[in-house]
Amino acid sequence: MNRQTFGTLFLSLALASGGLSLTLPAHADDAASGAPTAAQPPLPKETLTITSASGKHEFTVEKATTLREQQVGEMFRTTLPADQGMVFLWSAPQQSDMWMENTLIPLDIVFIGNDGRIQSIAENAVPQSLAHISSHGPAVATLELQGGITAKMGITVGDRVSSASLDAKMARPASAKKSH
């Protein structure tokens, strides 16, 4: 799965069309540059729970937190077990646009809103498609699961999503809490 913000796309187009030269600082997590050519190694994992009308559904998810991990996502992987997935943790709520370039398996793409609830689901995203799959509004995270699993388990828009990483993002900082 590949993710790219509109700002990065605009910069890439400007650089390609205008001969503009720009040097950006190097980041350790972006050490591997260029188009991905192979699946990335397994990422750190955590348990993620979706609470729906049909019950609690637990998944072991890899956490894609760096730009490179998010760009590569599930690309080139040939299987995704029903109880696993990948969560993309955005640094701030944002429009999340995904596509399936170099992704060989169908995925359900679940967009998680500021309230920790599912705001939209794209079921059975087509492998290797370049069609954009949009969150249609700000998301704090995007979750990729095995294609068809949300329908099979009765997971729907409005269901609550919880994990250590998501819960930490949702927690208000102590300095932001009002005292009465």
Automatic annotation (TrEMBL):
The keyword Signal applies. Gene3D superfamilies: Protein of unknown function DUF192. Keywords: Signal. The keyword Lipid metabolism does not apply. Coiled coil: none annotated. Residues 1-28 form the signal peptide. PANTHER family: UPF0127 PROTEIN MJ1496. This is DUF192 domain-containing protein. The lineage of its organism: Bacteria, Pseudomonadati, Pseudomonadota, Alphaproteobacteria, Acetobacterales.
